[in-house]
Amino acid sequence: xxxxxxxxxxxxxxxxxxxxxxxxxxxxxxxxxxxxxxxxxxxxxxxxxxxxxxxxxxxxxxxxxxxxxxxxxxxxxxxxxxxxxxxxxxxxxxxxxxxxxxxxxxxxxxxxxxxxxxxxxxxxxxxxxxxxxxxxxxxxxxxxxxxxxxxxxxxxxxxxxxxxxxxxxxxxxxxxxxxxxxxxxxxxxxxxxxxxxxxxxxxxxxxxxxxxxxxxxxxxxxxxxxxxxxxxxxxxxxxxxxxxxxxxxxxxxxxxxxxxxxxxxxxxxxxxxxxxxxxxxxxxxxxxxxxxxxxxxxxxxxxxxxxxxxxxxxxxxxxxxxxxxxxxxxxxxxx
Length: 335
Known about the structure:
It is built from eight helices and twelve strands. By secondary structure, the protein is an alpha+beta fold. It has three domains: 24-55 and 85-114; 120-234, Sandwich (Immunoglobulin-like); 244-332, Cupredoxins -  blue copper proteins (Immunoglobulin-like), CATH 2.60.40.420. The strands form three sheets. Strands 3-2-1-5-8 form a five-stranded mixed beta sheet. Helix 2 packs antiparallel against helix 3 (77-112) and helix 5 (244-255) packs across helix 8 (321-332). The relative contact order is 0.11.
């Protein structure tokens, strides 16, 4: 096989590698996502068939030898009539195809936006550049707020209410549902079900500023019992520090400007403009998917957020090394 052919195969492999994984509309893991995947494949199949037919007709036309005419201006009535019929048939076929695809799209939209009785209701607010996630419940004492990570029970209908605090964002978890915009002053709703356990990555799909590409969200679908345990734990306030270093970290955290923006339930920290940190140590990632959660990454994020995610609203706070290490240890322990 020549190098040219190998290069082509390599490019095709790279393209196809994007069709699976934890963020792919072609890897559906729920009924809403399956409807969208069916729609995509249906449109692709029809368009491919149309393209092939056009190429075949074009090849036939180009391969036929030109007929010699004694009078180039003479009109062949039978030929003109035949050509008119071919054009009319092509127009009719095009009309039918467009109508069929429109009908298929309408039916898919109807299925996607059919409202079911919701087992879990979540309110998501988009910020530059993170997701505020609030679990609603008829009992006020069972509501709580987290950030950038959504837990849902498998097989249970989920309603996500969407709004924005600043600019237009777009919530998109390809393996579970389609896109839905978050618009300041307006509430939109998205409904979906996760068919199997897993971690599904989502992304803001509307350009919302400098760090738009680093505004990820993670949906963790788990068994109902596991979800129930997770939710019960998230409702609880932060646990008291377990060791002297964490106690020092809590004291340093509460004495710094951190409390003006962040909230830690069970402590005097009650800021509302930045992510809730009550159970931050239990999350998988920091900064909306930029860094895996670890004590070292917590320290790096605290000391230089703009070096990791330029343009974020989090200010740089000057800390002594001992205070920085203690605060990182305290936050890591908030599980």
